[in-house]
Amino acid sequence: MLDTKHAVFRGRLVIVGFGSIGQGVLPLLLRHLEIEPRQISIITAEPRGREEALEYGIAFDETPLTRDNYRSKLSPMLERGDFLLNLSVDVSSVALIELCQEKGALYLDTCIEPWPGGYTDPNLPPAARSNYALRESALALRRRFAPGPTAVLTHGANPGLVSHFVKQALLDVARDAGIAASMPASRADWARLAQRLGIKAIHIAERDTQVANVPKSPGEFVNTWSIDGFVSEGSQPAELGWGTHERHFPADGRQHDFGGRAAIYLLRPGAGTLVRSWTPLEGSYHGFLITHGESISIADFLTVTEGGETRYRPTCHYAYHPCDDAVLSLHEFAGKNWQLQNRKRLIVDEITAGIDELGVLLMGAAKGVYWYGSRLTIDESRRVAPHNNATSLQVTAAVLGGMVWALEHPQAGVVEPEDLDFQRVLEVARPYLGEIVGVYGDWTPLQGRGRLFPEDLDPSDPWQFKNIRVG
After folding, report:
1. φ, ψ for residue 258 (rounded to 5)?
2. Quick one: DSSP state of residue 238?
3. Cα separation of 243 and 262, whole Å?
């Protein structure tokens, strides 16, 4: 499986951005696509990765893309049938998708990125800095350009891979509940299945335990993946898909007055908001409610609408516990009033141990909570792929899977992860995901609450957001 060629590609591949994910995905693309190094070009804002590009014989261009130069720089590099892989920060995804649609080129990104300031400009209202708004702007291109070349939105580990985990988890829970369910053929079928199973909430539940031989020092931000990317999304408003079962609207919650209205946002950054969650190895933990596209797209995908009224939707959000050094970095970052530290350190080679436990936690079904996902150790990630740690490999494997699907479906238009064949993507990504498991548990967010001090809890429905939020 580690040497399987999944697709043939004869065009040009332009990689925009070459940080940890770009460097990690390059060897996977060369391994699993029929493609030559001469077909690939890298354009990036920083010198990072130049040596790796040289190692593989890939053209490397250190040129920051801006509003003023991205068209003149990229247009000569793209023709019909070419592919733009966007792994950048501070380069507008919508602008690049527009260009690709005009040129007839395929496209994939791991998040919907704005131009600089789009996440953090205090002159912009919080709603405009949300992933909800970014998603709506990208989906508008679907209507504008349909039909057109395939543009896969937000297809990393999360958002991306976790949407496929949700589908497999729903099938597992249905099987174990003795519910005879054929493979859903449409988004409406998937939504009705989730409703029938009684799924109230879905957490993207992730615990990263990787540790390095050099600890974080004061004034330094340490992480196992893009620090700029993490800081950007952590500075956005906390966001979550908003379920129809919810009875207590957050005091600082706000609804959108445009789009599908599947999600809400809070008047606080995700990096300053904690939620209770659970994974099989870690058990209960506090994670950060970091905004992610899947919190919105999964909730939207699993919405049941009848007679123009929303009858069912699960609450969905990310509950992220990064590596311990990243938690310390966030604590320091928040204490400085969200001013980033002067030094940044991405840890890969210096990691000595640890695992990234990334999955989806389905809550509300009769048998208890069900977590389905990937347990990937640093040792396994090093065994199967160069230039990766456990966190990056879960992302790069999903990028590979999404690109293979796009090459197999080159005229699908603008699509989200939920629109892809989840079995095909998992088939491609699985060799790089370590142990894939599904585990039931009896955990609820009310477990152990009120032990030290009385709390205002409603035991009749433990899945309400009121009972999950702790900070």
Report:
1. -150, 160
2. E
3. 8
Fold match between 7-152 and 161-397+431-468? no
**Whether the Cβ atoms of residue 114 and residue 92 lie closer than 8 Å to each other:** yes
Instruction: For residue 331, give the amino acid letter.
Output: H
Mean pLDDT per segment of 10 residues, for the chain of length 471 residues? 95 98 98 98 97 96 98 98 98 98 98 95 94 97 93 98 98 94 92 97 98 98 97 97 95 95 97 97 98 98 96 98 98 97 97 98 97 98 98 98 98 98 98 98 92 86 77 48
pTM: 0.97
pLDDT at 221: 98
Strand bridging mode 59-62 / 40-44? parallel
pLDDT digits (tens, 9 = 90+) for 45-99: 999 999 999 999 999 999 999 999 999 999 999 999 999 999 999 999 999 999 9
Q: Running DSSP on this structure, what letter comes out for residue 219?
A: T
For residue 469, the model assigns a pLDDT of 61
Q: Which fold has domain 7-152?
A: Rossmann fold (3.40.50)
Residue pair 190/304 in contact (Cβ under 8 Å)? The answer is no
Phi, psi of 93 (to 5 degrees): -65, -40
**Cα distances (angstroms) measured from residue 389 to each of 7, 177, 318, 384, 446:** 25, 37, 21, 10, 34
Q: From residue 315, how far is each of 50, 81, 93, 276, 416 by CA, in Å?
A: 43, 39, 27, 14, 19
Pairing assessment for the beta strands 369-377 and 435-441 based on DSSP bridges? antiparallel
Percent of the chain that is helix, strand, coil (3-state, to 5):
35, 25, 40
Tell me if the bond preceding 159 is cis, omega within 30° of 0.
yes
Q: What are phi and psi of 53, to 5 degrees?
A: -60, -40
Contacts of 246 (CB under 8 A, 6+ apart): 315, 464, 465, 466
User: Is the separation of the CB atoms in 247 and 241 below 8 Å?
Assistant: no
Domains of the chain by residue range: 7-152, 161-397+431-468
The CATH class given to the 161-397+431-468 domain equals alpha beta
SS3 state at 121: coil
pLDDT at 81: 98
In order of 2, 64, 148, 319, 353, the CA distances from 426 in angstroms are 14, 34, 25, 22, 26
Give the pLDDT of residue 64. Answer: 98
Sign of dihedral through CA atoms 91, 96, 99, 105?
positive
